[in-house]
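Input set for joint prediction.
Command: fold jointly, output tokens.
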Amino acid sequence: NAGVTQTPKFRVLKTGQSMTLLCAQDMNHEYMYWYRQDPGMGLRLIHYSVGEGTTAKGEVPDGYNVSRLKKQNFLLGLESAAPSQTSVYFCASFSGTNYGYTFGSGTRLTVV
Amino acid sequence: AQTVTQSQPEMSVQEAETVTLSCTYDTSESDYYLFWYKQPPSRQMILVIRQEAYKQQNATENRFSVNFQKAAKSFSLKISDSQLGDAAMYFCAYSYSGTYKYIFGTGTRLKVLA
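tokens >
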């Protein structure tokens, strides 16, 4: 099925550990985004990409890195996880012509 | 900087009744887009309705309609004939041409009472 796939769906990390969240889309979309959702704060943009090989910072980029080596994949990395990074992470993609993101199903990350 | 404000953290509505969720935004752009998303307990983000700023006509999708007041920078969502399945968190979002980044409000949790 066409869409956005996020892996993993759940993860528990210890403080200081690293991990990578993978977002894959099969719709040939140019634009991809990583958001985090926290209670009472809505969704906030971490990083985004407007095309293969490009990345840019969003509203809350500190502690995260991203890469978009292939058009279909957008990776979000945590080099040294902190409890403040406990959140639900959403990836989204967008074609640029039909307004409305396609969202992944989210990753619940807990840092203990 | 653009901002989106949802001033109602929680709303309740009786089944079959009508409810209106409020959203205001601030922007200096003239070409932008507004959205309402529904997030049920499954966590999936579901597009409910979208509005292009250049269109004066309010968008409608079945039981869902918006009241778009561009001068007032207001974008409210009306749900008619509320159903139990409408219970969810609703997010208002703003986007503009170029990077198409979304700016979300903090959400309104809608409860539907049987």
